Structures are given as structure tokens and as C-alpha cells.
């Protein structure tokens, strides 16, 4: 069977997401509107602005956007400007949901260092006295957790200067690597009364954690289910996950998800696991919900277990839906990868967290509240025009016109000059630049409008 996704273990560290939490004073906003999402369910009867420009197919949801904005548009630009930089015309036209806010959280944090990996503590928390070091080649064909094999192989090879790891059933890689500048260590033992494997990596800037069962079917009491995927299910065929000619939701409609816990309780279990087992605090605001964030009818991000022997059987007789997948994206920061935060994919069921992949760059040391009075959006846009005029490198623009049409409020780490290991996360505006395709981003401090960075795509 052809694999359309790697799913459960694949990091989507910089995917766009929204907080589902209500308005707070001060607020923590991880996504400030969805680019272009100004219509359909996102527009309420109370919302101000013209709603006449709804486009068929735009299925943004109110739940997705969080609380209704104070100012909500229906297709009319919230900000337009045009000017020249040398011989290059610049066009700014922001056309999306925009919400003004006054006060935001600011975070003090410390960069991950080797002493913060807490490897022995983590192994003990997960496996207890059953923990064993794995110092041999590992492979899916050899009975090891295929998802962990993929994580290990990608981590090791990428840090050895190669990105050509073979993601297949026959994938094989080292399980234990101590090298100058990074390490990867693999352990195995009992977790949830099931044989699990744990990988821990560190490279001088980030901590990487991978936890998966050797045979996923043992976890759910169906040993034949030796494979696992992350799958979106939806309420109609048009947006169902389509796999090898099979609409899975049609095949599985008589087999609902075994996990019956509420989304809130699944979130709580995830937060508790992060704190008690992995040793760091995770915010509810940073958990992307398991329902309703993708285009199409309401969808759920589920854990799908199946048997390799059933791959050619369109009825998938042994397949089981049990559990959901959260994406964790702390301090989201755009698509280029120049700004990293903590990220992960987390599988959780009625039993608790059953596996996942975590990437951790920072540990929050202190949360400061009420001390960041942010600029109104109009003032930020005035600063953006000034920054472009003074700082843009026209030699890096690959087209005849520079366009900016997307804006998002993010958090950006500013290094402490007195202690380079410490940073302050400040609210910032991230603007995407386009010219014959995306060419970069401009990041401005949301407090004073000053330029924090300009990123160009190579």
C-alpha cells in the first residue's frame, strides 16, 4: 500500500495553528488570524464589516479563529499601501481577519543545553526499572518501532551532513551515537505494560524525544495491527482521508474511535505527561486541537492502527481507530524555519499519552504578564513601510514587484546581551513577502514597531 503520510511521527513544527482559548487580560496569542480567512463561519451576525464577498469553499470556523475579533472583515483590505524602493514597486494589501489587542504576555526563557536534557530522569520516568540501553542497529523489519527508527535515522543523518534517510519498511539506522556536537541514545522497556522504545537526541541547541511502541497492536489489544498512522477523518466523502482507493471513513463508519474522553481531558493528560514524565511545562494554548482546524467539514485527527497483511484488502478487517493526535507548536513563527520554537506530535487516548515526537529548543523560565503594551495594527503598518524602505535588499527580490498580503502575530526570541543563553519572548508581527513566489519574511516588534529580523529564502 502506498503511504500518503508518515503521520504520527512526523514533526509539523511550523504548521499554522490557532489557540482555541478565550480572551484573557493579558492575552497569549499564538496566531493572529488565518491568512485570507475572512468569510463563512468566521463572520458572525454581530461582526462589523462587509460580508458580501464570501467565497464558496472557504470553510474557516469560529472555533478555529478563537474569540470573535473586535474588527472583522469580509474581503475588504484592512491596510493598503504602495511605494517604490529604488526601482522595485512595493504593494502592501492585508486582507484577513485582524484583531486589535492591548496587552500580551512576555516570557523569559533559557535555551536548551545538555544539562537540561535530563536524560536519566526521563528514562526512569518512562521505563522505571525495566529500562535497557539499545546499542545495536535498529530497523522496522527487525521488530523495532518503525516510527522511532525513522526519527533516529533522520536525526543522525541530518547531523552528519546528509538528509537522504530512506523512509521505508526496511529502514535501518544506528541506535546509539555519541559524536562531536550531538548525541542520539535509544532505550527500551515497559510503558503502559507494553514494549516501547525511547529515543533521546541533543545537538547543542535542541532536545529531541521520540517514544513509540514496538508493536502498536499490543497497546490496543489487537496484536495483528502492527502499523500505525495519523489520519484525518471527516463527515463527508469529499474530505475523507483517501488511501489506496479506499475512503477510510466509509470503511470505518461502523468502527468508531475507541477513545471516549473529552478533548479537555485529553489535553489535561497531555499537559500532565509533559510535566511529570518529560520534565517541562506545556501550555494548553499551544496544543492544536484534534478537531476542526483543517479545510472541509469537521474533521478529527485520529490514531489509526492497521495490519500490514490487510493492506490490499479494501475492507481493512483488522483496522482500529483508537486515540487522537495533538500538534504542539509553542511560539509559532512562520514557514521558513528561521524562527524555531518547541514543537511535536502527541498521541493520546483514554489511557494517557501513548507516544509522540517532541522537539524542544527553549524552556520557559518565567512568565511576565501585563507589561507589554502592543501597538495598534495601523501603527505597526506604518513601521512596516518605513522598515521596507530602509532595510529591504532589492537584490534578493526575484521578481518585478514585492508584495505583502499576509500578517500574523507571533512570539520572537530576543537574546539577553548579558547572558546569551537567556532570551525574552516578545510579541512580534510576521509579514510574508512575495515576489514570483515566497521570498521571505519581515518580523517587527509588536511593542514598538522596530525591526527584529528580515529572512530571505535561499
Description:
By secondary structure, the protein is of the alpha+beta class. 15% of the residues lie in helices and 35% in strands. It has helices at 62-65, 119-127, 146-159, 216-220, 248-251, 263-278, 377-391; strands at residues 79-85, 88-94, 103-111, 132-134, 138-139, 172-173, 176-179, 182-191, 194-202, 207-213, 227-234, 242-243, 246-247, 287-288, 299-306, 320-329, 343-349, 352-360, 362-373, 402-415, 422-434, 438-445, 451-456. Strands 4, 7, 8, 9, 10, 11, 14, 15, 16, 17 and 18 form an 11-stranded antiparallel beta sheet that branches. Strands 1, 2, 3, 19, 20, 21, 22 and 23 form an 8-stranded mixed beta sheet that branches. A hairpin with a 5-residue loop joins strand 22 (438-445) and strand 23. It is globular. The relative contact order is 0.16.
- Give the CA-based shape: globular
Provide mean pLDDT, rounded: 74
C-alpha Rg (nearest Å): 23 Å
Find the structural class using helix and strand composition.
alpha+beta
Distance between the termini: 36 Å
Order of helices and strands: HEEEHEEHEEEEEHEEEHHEEEEEEHEEEE
In terms of per-residue confidence, which ranges show pLDDT below 50 for 5 or more consecutive residues? 1-75, 332-340
Annotation field: number of helices: 7
| Major sheet characteristics | 11 strands, antiparallel
Strand percentage: 35-45%
Helix content: 10-25%
Number of strands: 23
Question: What's the topology here?
Answer:
Layout: H1 62-65, E1 79-85, E2 88-94, E3 103-111, H2 119-127, E4 132-134, E5 138-139, H3 146-159, E6 172-173, E7 176-179, E8 182-191, E9 194-202, E10 207-213, H4 216-220, E11 227-234, E12 242-243, E13 246-247, H5 248-251, H6 263-278, E14 287-288, E15 299-306, E16 320-329, E17 343-349, E18 352-360, E19 362-373, H7 377-391, E20 402-415, E21 422-434, E22 438-445, E23 451-456
Amino acid at each position: 500500500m502506498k503511504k500518503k503520510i508518515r503521520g504520527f511521527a512526523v514533526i509539523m513544527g511550523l504548521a499554522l495553528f490557532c489557540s482555541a482559548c478565550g480572551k484573557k487580560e493579558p492575552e497569549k496569542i499564538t496566531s493572529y488570524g488565518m491568512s485570507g480567512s475572512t468569510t463563512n463561519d468566521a463572520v458572525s451576525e454581530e461582526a462589523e464589516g462587509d460580508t458580501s464577498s464570501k467565497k464558496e469553499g472557504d470553510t474557516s470556523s469560529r472555533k478555529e479563529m478563537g474569540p470573535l475579533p473586535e474588527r472583522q472583515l469580509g474581503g475588504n483590505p484592512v491596510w493598503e499601501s504602495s511605494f517604490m524602493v529604488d526601482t522595485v514597486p512595493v504593494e502592501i494589501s492585508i486582507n484577513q481577519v485582524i484583531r486589535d489587542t492591548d496587552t500580551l504576555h512576555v516570557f523569559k526563557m533559557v535555551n536548551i543545553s545538555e544539562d537540561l536534557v535530563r536524560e536519566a530522569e526521563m528514562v526512569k520516568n518512562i521505563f522505571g526499572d525495566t529500562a535497557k540501553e539499545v546499542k545495536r542497529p535498529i530497523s522496522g523489519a527487525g521488530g523495532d518501532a518503525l516510527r522511532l527508527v525513522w526519527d533516529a535515522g533522520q536525526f543522525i543523518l541530518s547531523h552528519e551532513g546528509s538528509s537522504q534517510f530512506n523512509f521505508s519498511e526496511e529502514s535501518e539506522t544506528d541506535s546509539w551515537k555519541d559524536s562531536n556536537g550531538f548525541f542520539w541514545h535509544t532505550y527500551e522497556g515497559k510503558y503502559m505494560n507494553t514494549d516501547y522504545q525511547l529515543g533521546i537526541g541533543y545537538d547543542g541547541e535542541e532536545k529531541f524525544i521520540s517514544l513509540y511502541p514496538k508493536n502498536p497492536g499490543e497497546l490496543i489489544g489487537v496484536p495483528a495491527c502492527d502499523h500505525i498512522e495519523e489520519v484525518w477523518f471527516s463527515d463527508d466523502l469529499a474530505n475523507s482521508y483517501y488511501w489506496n482507493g479506499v475512503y477510510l471513513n466509509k470503511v470505518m463508519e461502523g468502527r468508531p474511535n475507541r477513545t471516549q474522553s473529552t478533548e479537555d481531558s485529553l489535553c489535561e493528560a497531555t499537559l500532565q505527561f509533559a510535566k511529570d514524565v518529560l520534565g517541562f511545562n506545556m501550555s494548553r494554548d499551544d496544543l492544536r486541537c484534534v478537531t476542526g482546524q483543517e479545510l472541509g467539514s469537521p474533521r478529527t485527527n485520529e490514531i489509526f492502527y492497521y495490519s500490514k497483511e490487510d493492506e490490499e484488502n479494501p475492507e481493512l478487517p483488522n483496522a482500529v481507530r483508537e486515540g487522537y493526535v495533538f500538534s504542539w507548536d509553542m511560539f509559532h513563527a512562520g514557514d521558513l524555519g528561521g524562527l524555531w520554537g518547541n514543537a511535536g506530535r502527541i498521541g493520546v487516548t483514554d489511557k494517557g499519552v501513548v507516544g509522540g515526537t517532541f522537539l524542544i529548543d527553549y524552556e520557559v523560565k518565567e512568565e511576565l504578564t501585563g507589561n507589554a503594551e502592543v501597538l495598534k495594527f495601523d501603527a505597526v503598518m506604518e513601521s512596516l513601510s518605513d522598515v521596507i524602505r530602509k532595510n529591504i535588499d532589492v537584490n534578493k527580490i526575484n521578481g518585478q514587484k514585492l508584495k505583502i498580503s499576509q500578517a500574523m502575530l507571533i512570539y520572537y526570541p530576543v537574546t539577553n546581551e548579558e547572558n546569551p543563553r537567556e532570551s525574552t519572548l516578545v510579541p512580534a508581527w510576521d509579514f510574508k513577502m512575495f515576489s514570483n513566489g515566497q521570498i521571505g519574511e519581515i518580523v517587527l516588534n509588536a511593542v514598538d514597531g522596530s525591526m527584529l529580523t528580515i529572512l530571505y529564502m535561499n
